[in-house]
Amino acid sequence: MNIKDPTPNTLSNPVVKIETTKPNWIEKFVIDTREVTHEGKTYSYLVVNEEEFGKKVSIPKTFASYSKEGLISISSNYPEKYRELGLTHEIREHNEHTGENGCCLVCLKTELEDLEKTELDKKEYIQFRLGFFEDLVNYYDEKERAEYENNLLENLIQSKNYLIEVLSSI
């Protein structure tokens, strides 16, 4: 897909590499390590076998994540053609909008602006992301949550509702 990076790797502007945290416990679930570039920085991320991982811990069926510990990961069932958009959403949320009220929605709106710069089918992508957010909302709604997860759930609901609005206008 490759969204055009406004700050390409040049001698005067080298790409900074950000390595994902790779805790020992995740090793047996990792299928691959890949990279995504956002604003002149290249981030490594782990592609995780969600079926095997899901046998050990409760997880949403499809996920993209940038944890506060620095673990950047995505489920292997997350469509490859959508990964760059989903991961840059997570990178923005973690690095640019952490702790902001409505941070997920802010990142989602930017993600949809990025979508316009691609050749992906807009409606198909939005339907995928709507299903993604519906699954996350259901996951967090059904589990016993820590306080910070209540805020996360509120953010996820805002994003889901926004995608419903956008989809109805296409």
Can you walk me through this structure?
This protein is of the alpha/beta class and 170 residues long. The chain is built from five helices and five strands. The protein has helices at residues 50-56, 83-95, 103-115, 122-142, 147-168; strands at residues 16-18, 30-38, 41-48, 64-66, 72-75. Strands 1, 2, 3, 4 and 5 form a five-stranded mixed β-sheet that branches. α2 packs antiparallel against α3, α3 runs parallel beside α5 and α4 runs antiparallel to α5. The longest helix is centred in the C-terminal third of the chain and has 22 residues, at 147-168. The protein is globular.
Write the layout of secondary structure elements.
Layout (H helix, E strand, L loop, with lengths): L15 E3 L11 E9 L2 E8 L1 H7 L7 E3 L5 E4 L7 H13 L7 H13 L6 H21 L4 H22 L2
Parallel strand pairs: 1-3, 3-5
Antiparallel strand pairs: 2-3, 4-5
